[in-house]
Design a protein that fits this description.
By secondary structure, the chain is mostly helical. Strands 1-2 form a two-stranded antiparallel sheet. A hairpin with a 7-residue loop joins strand 1 and strand 2. The longest helix has 28 residues. It is elongated. The protein starts with 7 loop residues before the first helix and ends with a helix.
């Protein structure tokens, strides 16, 4: 037996093994054990077997327990006390007491047997001494098992306090491993009450040590490097563990250097498991650290913001199944914004301006993430959006500046300067959040009131100013192209676009404005609206999106409109969308032709100029669009019937141009030149006729559904194709 296993009782009396005892009576045995000034008391001997304590338990003098333990009684009249954890709620406590009462006979059986064994002592002191040692050893093992977690924690803490740096580092590492074992056990079996209680007990021990006045600050500093991340894992065990984990991190913040804690929490946040409950205590800690920082506020907040938004972005884009804590997570994210705002109120000058700009960008990023992940939790989402909108006045953010992008650009320049453009990569949803902020204000009056904005005035200004309207369209594209955004929010964005671009917008278009700087943004916006038209699940939304698409096109100067349509056609993979866009080109040519006829083309007649000023009529690129479809860049004829829609529209456009130019006796597009007629006849129309005729012959007599669909698709193509061939042959004669 090792020295650790030796009981104090065994060390005090050497006669306990019976080697020096004679045949003394039972009453003489206590006298032999007597030491010091304790008086000898003779005990009466009785052969009457006592009743078990279950039937007749003694009244005990109960000692007070620590706050985390309490007594409950399995018998009547305060009999049969047992101690349980005080952290159990009422249903858990009732269930535990009921189970203990049902099994109280086995519980007290060991006690009763031990008591009767003493009463029937057989005077064989060697055997009884050995048996007593075994009983003491068993009791020691039970006690060790009961307090193993607390003992290990205290041992590691003492080793850390020992002063040996190498040993302290090893002890910290062992402590972390021990804590992770406890948390993993509790998380792997959520229904195991013992594991839950062990986790809570360990957290309470850590918190108690940190709060103790006798704790060594060097030890606390050493523990602060690793414990925040480890303790955060306990937050998933229970609400009580989350509360204690928050308190532990708060204690570190209160006792350690704020700048050190900022680095520690950011590192823990970037390396921890990306789940709401794990991240929550670390976010709360950061919000308190921001308030504790005494200098260089902007620089230190700027370092922390990318880490925060990156974690929130991961969690909001890929929420775990059953993750019900995401609303609480965003509540803590808003708490960080409150802390930054509180710091701003204490600063002045350029630092105040920089920190407010950074706060504005952070709020816009959170606005986008909330819109993606919280939209279907209507009540919580609306509250968060309103709370975020309250920051806009203090950050000098207006709805007009958001929807045109001017405020976003201003804040970005203030925060990043000239040499740190890469910083905005972590705030990739800022422009999404800016445009969504305005859409939320359009949906909910309370949100606009929280932002202190009049949205009607913003709409009126956009309707009356073309360049600002183009800027707004460029910002709204971020909503239309946002893959994870709910369709309902995209519909609200389409409604807003229709509101600022009325049906007569083409009449208000200023043809003399320099459009070149806005062209890339508007092209991207039309591409995004095109994706909504193609993939929206709702027919109403598709129709509204197509109306918005045509209005944005009409708002573009005529000189650039054809180039935009051509780029959209050549960058589209959808046959149906190509067909729609080609029909728009044909519609534009038809309207210009009617306008020229109605005015009598006076200017052209007076000057004798046969060149049409409108690009849709004079641009030879119209034939390039036809060739793009009928003779694809990859070579060979088009794939039929898959691209039947695009082929039909291209043939209709070619036929329309032929008839229009022939009727007006003009050749603006060059379609009537002999070279172009022969090219169209030999390279487009005849190969296409061969292909269509072969497919029709192959599927004409087949009753299969696919064959029937192919024939139905190619019937109109065949009719228009033969009409185009007739027209070309007539012109060639």
């Amino acid at each position: 037996m090792s020295p650790r296993d030796t009981s104090p009782v065994e060390e005090e009396g050497a006669d306990v093994d019976g080697t020096d005892l004679d045949d003394a009576s039972l009453n003489d045995f206590p006298k032999l054990q007597q030491s010091g000034n304790v008086p000898y008391i003779a005990l009466p001997v009785s052969n009457k077997r006592p009743l078990p304590s279950v039937l007749q338990g003694p009244i005990l003098d109960l000692k007070p327990f620590p706050y985390h333990l309490k007594y409950v009684f399995l018998g009547d009249g305060g009999r049969l006390p047992v101690n349980i954890s005080s952290t159990l709620n009422a249903p858990q406590e009732d269930k535990l007491v009921q189970v203990l009462k049902e099994h109280k006979m086995p519980i007290v059986e060991l006690e009763h047997k031990a008591y009767w064994a003493i009463k029937s002592f057989n005077m064989k002191m060697d055997e009884s001494g050995e048996h007593r040692k075994l009983q003491l050893q068993e009791l020691e093992e039970i006690r060790n098992d009961a307090y193993e977690s607390a003992r290990i924690y205290k041992e590691k803490t003492k080793l850390i306090e020992g002063g040996d740096s190498h040993q302290s580092e090893n002890s910290v590492s062992e402590l972390v491993n021990f804590l992770e074992t406890i948390s993993d056990a509790a998380l792997s079996d959520p229904d195991n009450v013992d594991s839950q209680n062990n986790a809570l007990e360990v957290l309470l021990e850590i918190h108690g040590y940190l709060c103790s006045p006798s704790s060594d600050q060097e030890v606390i500093d050493a523990l602060s490097l690793v414990l925040p991340k480890t303790v955060a894992k306990f937050a998933c065990v229970s609400d009580r563990c989350l509360e204690i984990a928050d308190s532990v991190i708060d204690r570190f913040i209160a006792t350690c250097n704020p700048r050190d804690m900022l680095s520690i929490l950011c590192e823990a946040l970037s390396k921890t498991i990306k789940a709401s409950a794990y991240v929550a205590p670390l976010l709360s800690g950061l919000s308190k650290v921001f308030l504790s920082i005494q200098r260089r506020h902007f620089e230190q907040v700027k370092v922390a913001v990318p880490v925060i938004v990156s974690v929130l972005k991961v969690i909001s884009s890929e929420p775990e199944d059953g993750d019900t804590e995401i609303d609480g997570l965003f509540d803590r994210a808003v708490g960080i914004a409150n802390s930054i705002h509180e710091v701003c109120t204490k600063l002045e000058g350029i630092v105040n301006e920089k920190l407010r700009a950074l706060l504005g960008l952070y709020v816009l990023q959170i606005m986008a993430l909330v819109s993606v992940s919280m939209f279907y939790k209507r009540s919580s989402c609306h509250q968060l959006v309103s709370r975020l909108s309250c920051f806009y006045p203090s950050c000098s953010i207006s709805y007009f500046g958001l929807i045109t992008g001017s405020d976003v650009d201003k804040m970005t320049n203030i925060v990043t300067g000239e040499d740190e453009d890469d910083y905005m990569s972590c705030l990739s949803y800022v422009k999404h959040g800016a445009s969504l902020s305005v859409i939320w204000g359009n949906i909910l009056d309370g949100v606009a009131q929280a932002a202190n904005e009049d949205l009607t005035a913003v709409k009126d200004e956009l309707q009356s100013n073309q360049t600002e309207r183009w800027q707004a369209v460029g910002m709204l594209k971020h909503i239309y192209s946002f893959v994870n955004l709910p369709w309902e929010l995209k519909k609200h964005a389409i409604d807003f676009l229709l509101c600022i671009t009325d049906e007569n917008i083409s009449q208000k278009c200023d043809e003399h404005i320099d459009f070149s700087s806005y062209m890339p943004s508007l092209f991207a916006a039309l591409q995004a609206i095109k994706m909504v038209i193609m993939y929206a699940p709702d027919t109403v939304l598709r129709k509204l999106s197509f109306d918005a698409f045509k209005r944005v096109l009409a708002d573009i100067p005529t000189a650039q409109r054809f180039d935009i349509l051509k780029a959209l056609i050549t960058n589209s993979d959808s046959s149906s969308m190509i067909a729609i866009l080609i029909d728009l080109v044909k519609g534009e040519m038809y309207m210009e032709n009617r306008k020229r006829i109605s005015t009598g083309n006076n200017e052209a007649q007076q000057t004798g100029n046969k060149e049409c000023p409108n690009p849709f009529c004079s641009n030879a690129s119209v034939l390039e669009l036809v060739e793009f479809v009928l003779r694809p860049p990859q070579g060979g004829p088009p794939s039929l019937p898959e691209h039947g829609d695009a082929v039909l529209s291209a043939l209709n456009l070619y036929r329309f141009v032929l008839i229009t130019e022939s009727t007006g006796k003009t050749n603006y597009t060059g379609v009537l030149s002999k070279e172009n007629l022969q090219k169209a006849y030999n390279e487009w129309l005849l190969p296409l006729r061969t292909l269509v005729t072969g497919i029709m012959a192959e599927n004409g007599n087949d009753c299969d559904q696919l064959a029937f669909d192919a024939v139905c698709t190619l019937n109109p193509v065949e009719l228009v194709l033969y009409r185009c061939i007739e027209l070309v042959e007539e012109k060639l004669k």
